[in-house]
Design goal:
single chain
Length: 89
């Protein structure tokens, strides 16, 4: 049987991030041989917030996380309204 699961390349920039009493896992990765990177932030309960845009580099994805952190703060970044479908932007 052939394994059809996509190969995931995880960025070295992926990391656990702490802000006060909040802890998240910042995951930056790409699938198969794609050039674009994906940004996903996973909270302590396993709820993931994934950006709908793709990034040209892993450092661009991390820069977007840092920008959102500065502009909104971590708590607001993770605070999804009922209308949200766990995707930012």
């Amino acid at each position: 049987m052939v394994n059809t699961s996509p190969k995931i390349t995880r960025s070295v920039l992926s990391q656990e991030f702490f802000d006060g009493d909040l802890t998240v896992q910042v995951e930056i990765y790409r699938v198969d041989d794609a050039n674009d990177w994906i940004l996903e932030v996973i909270d302590e309960d396993g709820v993931a917030v994934m950006w709908s845009e793709f990034f040209e580099s892993d450092s661009a994805a991390m820069a977007r996380f840092a920008q959102e952190l500065r502009e909104q703060g971590l708590a607001d970044m993770l605070d999804l309204d009922d209308d949200d479908i766990e995707t930012l932007h």
